[in-house]
Amino acid sequence: MRMTMINEGVLQDLTREDLYKLIEMYSKNWMALDGVWFQSIERKFGMDEAMFHDAEAWKRYTVIEARRIKDFLDLPDQAGLEGLKKALSLRFVANVNKNESILTDNTLLFRVNECRVQIARARKGMEYHPCKPVGLIEYSEFARIIDERITCECLSCHPDVTDTSCSCSWLFTLGE
């Protein structure tokens, strides 16, 4: 049974172009909320406490997001790297970060070329977000939900940047 949205009539009246703009705005709003709560904890309790809560939030959120995208795409249990590539492209952050995915036989290289979080922190004169520990949770768990055979390795991410041509890069490998 399909649930009716309260504003369904409003959405149906929007043009395709306006719907794309709305998705982009929703994505920016989501990212702003993520940053606002994080910076609130960071200001009051410090980076370590903020990172703890960020990791706890991402442990749960990334599983929810991955399951919903997997269901939306009607992906099989073992969707492989092709399924992961499709799923990564539908994440909220994919609408506001510039990224690329390079698929080979057994690996998927995912690079965030421009990260809205890091750009915003730099604009505010803040240190870069040390997102590697949370990124490992986020990307590993997301991939595991799409296909439990996929493992994730961080190639470059703050604070361990090894590739300055992007904000971060992740390598997904399909195992047996």
Task: Write a concise keyword list for the protein shown above.
single chain; 176 residues; alpha+beta; Muramoyl-pentapeptide Carboxypeptidase, domain 2; 4-stranded antiparallel sheet; 6 helices; 4 strands; globular
Q: Per CATH, what is the topology?
A: Muramoyl-pentapeptide Carboxypeptidase, domain 2
Strand content: 15-25%
Overall shape: globular
Oligomer kind: single chain
Number of strands: 4
- Number of DSSP helices? 6
Quote the average pLDDT: 93
- Helix and strand content put the structural class at alpha+beta
Q: What's the Cα radius of gyration?
A: 17 Å
How does this structure look, described?
- By secondary structure, the protein is α+β, with helices and mostly antiparallel strands.
- The chain has a single domain (17-174), classed as Muramoyl-pentapeptide Carboxypeptidase, domain 2, CATH 3.30.1380.
- The protein is built from six helices and four strands.
- The protein has a four-stranded antiparallel sheet with strand order 1-2-4-3.
- Helix 2 packs antiparallel against helix 3 (47-73) and helix 3 (47-73) runs parallel beside helix 6 (132-146).
- The mean pLDDT is 93.
